[in-house]
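Dear support,

We are seeing what looks like truncated structure output for some complexes. This example has two components. We would appreciate it if you could run it in full and send us the complete token output so we can diff it against ours.
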Amino acid sequence: MLAEKSAPKTGENTWLWLLKIGSGLLILTILIIHYIVNHFIGEEILLTYDEILRYYSNPIVPIMEGIFLIFVVVHALLGLRSIVLDLRPTRAVLRVINGVFGLVGVVSIVYGIWLLVVIASRGSAG
Amino acid sequence: MGESLRKPTTRAWMQAWFDPRRRDLGTFAFVLNRITALGLTLYLFLHLIMLGNLARGPEAYEQFLTTIEHPVFVFGEYLVVLAGLIHGFNGIRVALTSFGIGVPYQKRIFVAMMVIAAAAGIIFGVRMLTV
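Here is the complete output from our reference environment:
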């Protein structure tokens, strides 16, 4: 009957599995809040460049977006890794995958935070 | 055993992977979860790359906004929303069953979640696709 439950896969650490589920729930919560605040309470338009600078000049916004970015990237890459695990990779292949996904994750998060800092600083300067 | 060890013909291989007949509801849930996951991951990286236009300044960003107003991009965006709804609501079921909650009723939970996703999908469709 245990097989009926969602459980860590072979080769998936229990903590990574928990992180995948926890980050998923967190992403869903943030997305629902974001949608209600920005599209039901706010106006339904694409923000212009100036509006984005103004929006990001409030420090809460880049901080929240930064946290959201980290959890989305982690969730996406752990999920891709689950798909790879389903295809029964050899140990050597899995090691390469771990390295590549780890690198992609770090690069994406650093790039995203750099972008947030650029936008936030332009907003507070102007 | 001997049957499964033999190298399958292309046709048998295609059938094993892509023939939708005689599959369990859980298999469809799994397939939906995986297909939407791949789509959302593709969108995530496109989104990160495209928002780089913000760093290149107002002209580059406004130019990007005009491009994505095209109906093809709006429809693509709608597919992203649908994928998010399906993946997110099915994800609630996965999270519940992960902790042993509602395991005997997970098929019914899946159907209920997909009804919610479909209803939300219609609302989004009306809001996004009609002018």
